[in-house]
Structure formats: structure tokens, C-alpha cells
Request: fold
Amino acid sequence: MRQIGFEEIENIALGAALLGAGGGGDPYVGKLVALGAVREHGPVTLVDPEDVPDEALVVPIAMMGAPTVLSEKAIGGKEYQTLYDMVSQFYSQEIYAFMPIEAGGVNSMLPIAAAARLGLPLVDADGMGRAFPELQMVTFTIGGLSATPMALTDEKGNSVIFETITNKWTEELARAVTMSCGGSVSVCLYAMEGKMLKKYAVKNILTRSERLGRAIRDLGKGSAERPEEAFIAAIDGFKLFKGKIADVLRETRAGFNFGKIVLEGIGPYRGQEAWVEFQNENLIASVEGKPVATVPDLICLVDTETFIPVTTDALKYGKRVLVVGLKCFDLWRTPKGLELVGPRYFGYDIDYIPVEEHTKGGGCNV
Amino acid sequence: MYRLGIDVGGTNTDAVLLDESLRVVAMVKKPTSDDVQQGIVDAAQEVLDMAGIDRSRIGQAMLGTTQCTNAIVERKNLAPIAVLRIGAPATVGIPPMTDWAEDIKKTVVAEAIIGGGCEHDGKELAPLDEEAARKFFASLAGRVESVAISSVFSPVRNDHEVRAAKICREVLGDDIHVSISSEIGSMGLVERENATILNSALYKVASRFTTGFARSLTALGATEADIYLSQNDGTLMTMEHAQRYPILTIACGPTNSIRGASYLSRRQDALIIDVGGTTTDLGVIINGFPRESGVAATIGGVRTNFRMPDVLTIGLGGGSIVRLRDDGTVTVGPDSVGSAITEKALIFGGDTITATDIAVRLGMYDLGDKTRVAGISDSLAQKALAVIRELIEDALDAMKVSSADVDVILVGGGSIILPEKLAGAKSVSKPQLFGTANAIGAAISKVSGTYEKLIDYNKIPREEALARAKEEAIQAAVAAGAARETVEIVEVEDVPLAYYAGNTNRVKIKAAGDLAT
Reply:
């Protein structure tokens, strides 16, 4: 058990930008929401998932909708109390702790604010170990847990709790409510008992995120002898490519940004071309036309000098980036996991390639 | 009629006088003094003395200055202000200035969040709580001279901000300085509000230096000159506008330099390499305007949503120190003898090998005492030049947007150290008068107008919406002082809203034209 204060929030926010794998939204506004809540109510207690009693009710908190809208409307502050009341009333049980459902991007931050405002502990775990675009894409789905009952509320005080027959319906209804409420809502979903959490959650992800963020900040001070190698080592990652953004092709279909980033190699990769295909998050990285990493592993673009993660909505021609791969949570690598979040689910006719495969045995160009 | 252009930089204050066809009549370069105001007056006086023209024939005076930036960074002369945010029940989770440092936060003596604001589609989020606004303003009487007002989604609809500003003047009188966020920043409440707060805090500084400049010009005999200030996007605003929106003057320096270089070399699209004594700045000009950085600018520790010109700075300059390592390799910089080059470089009688010494040794430039560099071995000189070439070509490559070669413009006193041909450059040109590119950049600037909104293409067909948006941007440029027939669209951004199922895009359009005279 330890406390999450200002310093920890700064680090987690930066780590969460990396775990967003290009998506998840810029955690900046989320960070301010967390800082604002901690300033008002004091630091948050982070609990190890193993210490959560089996029967305790743990509730993930998130926002749904457009990060652009969140960057205008932020959070009202009463949303978390509303959600708490709805959920605890539904289960006739007090909520033991909050947790993030998504450790990547802006959703890593909001549960910290919720925990601070309500004085509840926060569990060091999530359901993705990264960011994903659809709400059934959580480890708990593999465990047979339904997203519903799902509670939604906006900052104006409109709220709804619903049950659905499939997670697809949940997605559909939640999106409709989000649009009507002005484009962003706060939600509770996948409420669960401690034993489900212990069995399926991605554990210690906030601690990992914090470590990643601290590593990036330390390297940013510019004291490392070989910063690139130090960065790869610090994040436990695999170097896939280094290049300059030569083109970004985008289109929007059904609320998702599809696109392809074309990179021209620099340094040891000069003369080579790489593509990173994304749907909000980066999904496939190919070098010279050959896929080298795929979802659900994390494909992250970071600035070559500062190692600050680059999100898909901030892609800019000419920017120099390092493409790194991070191993995803083990459960995602099982047949059931890949069925939910593997390359084929996203419409790519290729098999999953574990990120360490490609870089094994000298294939990596460090 | 003539134009006077003045640019205050970190090292030098430059002044230039241009005639009607924008030819340089006179120019001066003076070290920037601690008293920026005095430095401006001195530079203006000297350039006017030098030109010896009828001063009443100066029609326009353009000033690019660091005074507002300095005030924020040094936390000096900031006025006590109040902050009103309209947006409850939304946004209260992030009070104003949540991540500001304590020292600058002290500038704000009162703050409140009241009901109001709108949704992204213009629908009302909550009715404006006029009662609360009135009460807040009444509590400020005698405590502040300036108020910052922001409202949720005010770039979409700003009527709540405008109404609150009116109430503010009703309660506190017409002398109160009011800044509203929709006139200052773009999408993103926190950054827009931050910029608005800084704007309010700067009003005293701005009114002092603009009236000071006007008075000095009159005293110097330039009685007919209209005064304009440079903005960070490379366009101009009137003095009255600058007094209301001083925050827009920040970071205009690099922009002026890039635009001046582009003008001098008569190129609308090019890569500019500005080599100084210690560092080199690389910038890109597209269609006559500097390429903007994708990163939100942080000024004095405060995050805003201003886009600064995209400038890459590397540690290479005329005074960069050249060293031969034990293993036979040669390094150049990043440390430099800086302004002490006239004492420390070999050619000036010193004992440090600088990049400039290498250029003289290799016969690329004639400067100082050539015999003093004869002792540098050819191998060392060639190796050093190879390092310089690699540094600059690498930086050039980083700034290019594609593998196609680009036209390169070299400016700055240190540019003598660069080889004549560079990989990745289609052409390399060095305009005459490159030393005062920034002051010329200020003098030749245009005026602009910007449109930014979220547009639902399911409601308005894209083409129709864009045409309407362009017309609004043009109107804004004309309202800012541009001659209508010269206004062109210089920038169009059309980005879909992420994680949003509608067909809504964020559209930003900028139009710019010549000053109407």
C-alpha cells in the first residue's frame, strides 16, 4: 500500500501516454483532473490487487467519448459520487475500491480523481495493460464478465444505468448516450468481485506506468551516455525502427480514426521504409513491407530526442520518431485473447507476431 | 511613404527602414539592453539619422518585441487580476491554474467558476448565471484592474463570454480591462484560459510599452506613423489590438527572422538556416508563413495553446569550439566561445580553434589574420568541416517533410562556416543584408484572420461548410486591417474528432493579406 500524490501523477500520466500506444487521448487534461482532486482531497491510497478481499466490490472508472470534448468540458466533480451511488445501490453493496479499466491515455488518470474525491482506495490494476478502442476489449471478457450493468453520467447530472444482452449492444447504447450528452461521459463498467480481479486483471500496471514515466522524465534531463539504449532498457522494449514521418493517411469511419503512418528510415535504417497502421491506437508495424509487430503488443512512437510518446492525433510530417514495441499482457497472447484483440479482429489478414520474435537473433538493428 | 521595422531579440535589437517598394534604405543592429524600451528608441533614432529622410513620410512602424515574454518569464510588472470561468456544472473538476507555479499564481487575486457555456454543437450546456457573475464582479471593486473571462466551447459560441464582459463593465466601470478567451485562444479550455489569464496580467506592460513607443516615434518626428505589433504567427496587429491582446506578441522573434529571410531571397517555400555564434536555428517557410510546431507552447511554465514556429536548434555556430580527440576524431561544439569570438578565435589573436577558424583555414571566407590558422593541419580542418557538414545536413534532413530536395536560405553572421553545397538542398542561397532579416520580417508582415470551429458534416455538406469558413476567415483578416483584394487563404486544417461516432471535424482556417493603406 502506498500513496499517489502529485509526483506520482506526473509520472503515471507520462507512462500512460506510452501505454496508450498512439491512442487513448492525451493524458494532460486527465492529469489536471487528478491533480485538482488530489489538491482538494489529499493523496490516494494504491492497493495491491492481491490484498483485495475476494468478495469486495471493485469498480472500474473511465470516460467515454471524444478527448477533444473532454479538453473543453473536463469533469464536473460530482460525476463520481453519482456513479458510486448508482452502482452501490444496484448491488446493495458498498464499493471497496476504484480502478482504471484502461491504463493507456486519459483513462489512466480519471480513476485517481474518483478515488481522491470519494476517499476510496485505488487498485493497482486494469483490464487492458494499454489502451483499446472498444469496450469489450478487456481481460475480464475472457473471464466471462459482462460490461453491464454499466452506469453513465454527464457533468450536468443526467445519468443512466443499463443492462444489455451483449457487449456489442452495450457499445451501441453507450455511444448513443455519449453523443446525446454532448460527446463525453463518465462511466462505471465491469464492476467485479475481488476474486475476478485477482484472476484476470493486469496487475501492478499503475506502478509500471509510473516507472515508465519516471524513466522518460529522467532521460529527458539528458544525462544518459547512450539515451536511446537506456530508454529501450528502461521500458523493457524492443526497437523496431527509427525514422521520419513522411506521410500520414487518414480517414474516419464510424467514429474511429483509421490511418497509416509512412516512415522514412534515419540512422541505421536509412534507405528503408516502415508503415504503422492505426485505428486510434497503433496496430501493425511493418518494415520494408514485412510486418514486425502487431496488436495486441504495444507499438509506440516516441520522439527521438525526448522519448515523449507521440499520439496518433499529434502526428506531424517531418517528426523524427523511434518505433518501439512492448510486450502485451500474457492473457492477450492466448487464442481467446487474440480472438478479441488480435490483428484479425481489426481486419488485418495476418497472424499475431510476438514482438520479441522479430527482434530475436540479430534481426534487430540496434 | 516609408516603413520602419524594429525587432528586439535576445542579443540584438535591429531596426530597418524600407521605402515604398520595400527596398532597404537604412539598417542598424544594436545590442539589446536591459532597458528594452531604451534600446528600441536608440535603434529607431540611429536608423532614422542614418536614412536622413523626411520623417513625416514614415507611414507605418512595426515592432516585434520580447517585452511581454520577459514580463511573464521574470514575473515582473504583471497586473493583479481576477479570473471568471463560465462552465459549471462542467469543468469544476479542474479549477483555474491547477498546474501553475505558486509565484505566477499570485497574480490572480480572485477566481470563480459559474454556470454557463455550451456543448460542441452550440447547444447550451447551462444558462449563464448572470446573478453569480454580477456578485463576483462586485466583490472585485478596488482590487483588480483586469479580468480574464473564459467559457466552455467559446470558440464554437461566445455569447456567454461577451455577455459576462458586458456585465463586468456595468459593475466595475468602463476602465476595467476585460479579456475574453474566444478572442485569444483556440480549442482546449485549460490552455485557452491560461493564455487569457496571461493576457489580462500583461495589459499594463502592454499599454506602457506601446504608448512609450508611440511617444518616442512622435518625439523622433515620425508623427504620421501607424503602429503595428508582430504576432507569433508572423502577422501584424494594430497598436489598439496589441493593447487588448498583448499575449499575441509573444515569441514573434523566430517568426520575423524566417519571414524576413524568405522575403529577402524571394522564396515562398524554403528551409531557412540561421547560424549564430553559438547555435543554429532551422525553420521552414511554406507559402510565405513559418511552419507551426505541433506542440503547445509553454510560456514561463504556463501551458497555452499558441502554436509557435517549428524551429530546430542545434549547438553549432561561428564560435563553436573545435577539438581533436586522442583517438583522432574531431568534435565541433556544442560549446562555443560565443560573443568572445573576437578575442578567442585564432584569426583574432586568441588561442581557441573555432568553426570560423576552420572556414578561414580552408579558404571559404576571408576574415581576420589568415596566417594564424596556417598551423591547422589540412586533415584536422577537413575532418572538422565534415563534422559541421554532418551536423547541418542531419538537421536539415530532420526539418524536411519528404525526401525531395529543398531550397535552402542561409542567414546569420555564422553562416560563413557552412559549405556551399549541402546534401538534401536543391539550392543554397545567401541573401545580402541577411543580418537584419528579423527587422525586415517585422516590416513586411501581413495581417491575418483565423476561423476555428467544430463542424458536423452530416448537417452541412463539407464543401459548403469549408467555403463558408474560408469567407469568415477572410472577413476576420479584413477586420484586422488587411486590404480585401490581397487576402489569401494561407492555411487549412480539417481534422476528424477522435473517438466520436459523428462526422464532426475540427476546422481551422487562416487568411492573410497586406495592410490596407
Summary: Residues 361-366 of chain A have pLDDT under 50 and may be disordered. Chain A touches chain B through 54 residues (CB under 8 Å).
